[in-house]
User: What shape does this take?
Amino acid sequence: EEVSCVGQLVCAVIAESEVQAKRAAKRVKVVYEDLQPLILTIEEAIQHSSFFEPERKLEYGNVDEAFKGVDQILEGEIHMGGQEHFYMETQSMLVVPKGEDQEIDVYVSTQYPKYVQDIVASTLKLPANKVMCHVKRVGGAFGGKIFKTGILAAITAFAANKHGRAVRCVLERGEDMLITGGRHPYLGKYKAGFMNDGRIVALDMEHYSNGGASLDESLIVIEMGLLKMENAYKFPNLRCRAWACKTNGPSNTALRGFGFPQAGLITESCITEVAARCGLAPEKVRTINMYKEIDQTPYKQEINAKNLIQCWKECMAKSSYTLRKAAVEKFNSKNYWKKKGLAVVPLKFPVGLGSITLSQAAALVHIYLDGSVLVTHGGIELGQGVHTKMIQVVSRELKMPMSNIHLRGTSTETVPNTNSSGGSVVADVNGLAVKDACQTLLKRLEPIISKNPQGTWKDWAQAAFDESISLSATGYFRGYESDMNWETGEGHPFHYFVYGAACSEVEIDCLTGAHKNIRTDIVMDIGYSINPALDIGQIEGAFIQGVGLYTIEELQYSPQGVLHTRGPNQYKIPAVCDIPTELHISFLPPSESSNTLYSSKGLGESGLFLGCSVFFAIHDAVNAARRERGLFGPLKLNSPLTPEKIRMACEDKFTKMIPR
Amino acid sequence: VNGRKVIEKNVDPETMLLPYLRKKLRLTGTKYGCGTGGCGACTVMISRYTPTTKRISHHAANACLIPICSLYGASVTTIEGIGSTKTRIHPVQERIAKCHGTQCGFCTPGMVMSIYTLLRNHPEPSLEQIMEALGGNLCRCTG
Assistant: This one.
């Protein structure tokens, strides 16, 4: 009866072929009656007080008192556009009704097979044990294949069930971009009270996110944004409030980073403005406000920032920051129409899902009588290499070569009741479950192995079978303790922090607004890495996705809320030409052990925020251009910092010629 | 296609190469990423013989935009045609896998075909030629 956004699913058409389905869909006529008010932007939502309740708040110290004792106060705001997941494989699923006992197989590209199982079972009024959801691998997900996929699967399953035939549903790219939401656009307002040496003593912030037409994960996103907003800095007095706005756009959902890339950018933007006001270099203001060794976060969790400071120092050293800054300034003094910029940004990414339930995981390990092993677990292979890491775990625990171990895929039939694969914890929690299963097996087989220590796994398996000892075990990990009390604003929501720093150099063309990424140096503290190649891949991929988010990916909507950018020709994700000509990634030597899987750290999301080092490098370059043209004063740049924005910010006699 | 003669009579002129490869010939290595020629996941190599110059030319193309009616007398090489784990993998495939150039793997067949075509035309390409060849292949996982 009521449609709340363009792209909302209204009906489905099933046909024998794609062409037929499209023709049939064109014949569906829907008559609309416009309802008021139409709320599309965050500003309109604020005007109409259209929010998903409740508002969330984080407070530390006494902000109002602290504002009285500062040297200067500044106020500002920054807009951040959303982001489309643009997984290379669009939403795809195949539902096959088995015809017997109402069994139904769902093959789907999803991060959350349990949810698909539940929603299909509920739609078809079946118990969950008749719905089997299988995922062999996913062609990229980044958070976009959790909830919407379930809805599409339910619709496909309904069609399959109704006709007793297999039904396939694959979205075209344009439809996928329109129907599925993306990252929450943000509006950040800040009021900072600071001393003349750059120390920020009081910070009052407001975060508004555009949640779209339905709740989805919008509340959790702003909560995580709040908890991670201070990034690497200690603000002695802080108040930050966050609201998820309800608008008439497609419902926005999880996307790698989950609120932190947005909240972090707002904070960094504030710091850059404070630095400009004090006449200090941004990196000095960043250093002076950073966490010092043992400290406390705004929600009173203990933090040891030793590795953060080390990452920061090493990044500055490895990138030869001081030398390159001088080189950049020299270049800028010699070039009027081209400017270079340099920026270094620290990172503290807290890893944790907020409750012990959300980080539980399970696994299943079979040893066959020929000594070969089949393993499966609750995590989904999205391209992050989790299955490779799990095979590594089995190899290490059972002391057998990786070639002897096979992992076929994930299914609700083999490992039930699993959490969605996301939050940078998949390899960690599932690995602990796999480790548990292997250790159970080793304990059972200990008498067999000790009788024949020189034997092969084939010998031991056969001997176990002869003595009626089970060669199959489930593994379980109960999850990490995690709590956050939003009433008191205190808790211990995060299990550990991933630290890092990135230094980026760019060159902008003041006449076209185009920019080139010249060099980026990233240093990260990742604990003990289980597979450095996979970890570097994750950091590189996340970093480039961040560069896309902050500089080239822009979603465009019509005033009526229709998405204009519906394909790679309009929505630009980074390509080979956007990779920095020099990209160096290095890790700190591992220093402390923890109770994660082999003391490793989950890296799926942390690298994305480092893309803002490119944002601030462009900011630096634009500032250089403006200073040369005699334009002083605060520079307000919103994200994404597209060529249009860069060009118009480098004001000159040409920009004055057009009407504004 | 991949060395085998394919004859199709009474074909629908709107049929593009990509669905034909995937559904009719069951060669599912070539992927659908956008359908509009912007992402390169559907890259294949098209080879044609020019009788006047007596030479065969090879170029990479987006299968989602090529009507099969335009391929009279042409040769199509897909990812399955240059190597597979069933027969023997091609050095380009091997290198990409071993150098960790693939994560979810969806864009990889297109990348491999672009690189393969580049190497067929320029056995020792310069950095500019490589950037030019791969500029049309998007990858969300590795960047």
